[in-house]
Design brief:
Largest sheet: 3 strands, antiparallel
Number of helices: 8
Strand order of the largest sheet: 1-2-3
Structural class: alpha+beta
Helix content: 40-55%
Strand content: 5-15%
Oligomer: single chain
Number of domains: 1
Shape: globular
Amino acid sequence: MSKSNARTLLLLLLIVVLATSCAYFSDRSNSGTQNNAASAGTSLDGLEVSEPGSMSGYSREKFPHWSKASEFGWDPPESSCNAREAALIRDGEAVEVGRECKVESGTWFDPYTTRTYTEPSDIDTDHVVPLANAWRSGASSWDNEERERYANDPEVLLSVEDNANQSKGDKGPEAWKPPNEAVWCDYAVRWIGIKDKYDLSVNEQEKAALVEMLDACESE
């Protein structure tokens, strides 16, 4: 292969990766992007701005997670699927499912890093707004039923590479953003949508970071 052809092939591969990462959260036209960003900006302005609440009493176990998927808005292929399995099936390609809804293989594109994985064990199920973040922005006052609904909500969950998810931890966008800047717009829109849906607050630094990320929508 000539150097010219090699450069052309590399450019095409880069275009495919960027297009895939932009489309991962949703399939959007340019006008749709602007509408989503404008709507998210309006929702962000309507969120309560306050200092993060106390983490006193917090435990992941207070958010019952990986519950029966069909009871929380998922459409899994089997009734035995839990929310994590349903997320892996939704977010993957050519996913093979065994007995008791065990996800055995497939291909997963991680929108945070633009890397692709073929082992389910490499994939974490991220709560886009982490459970601890939800706790200190309003969920501490919820009952267990509401916390379970949140922890298994299809809109809250996203399949991502495990190291990227661990790097994120319980951080908000003021402290952590996806390394792949091509998804900043979608990430911010989704984050705001979750906080708006569950009437969760934002802090000042978090709001400023979300405004910055929404600016990325203008270039799409």
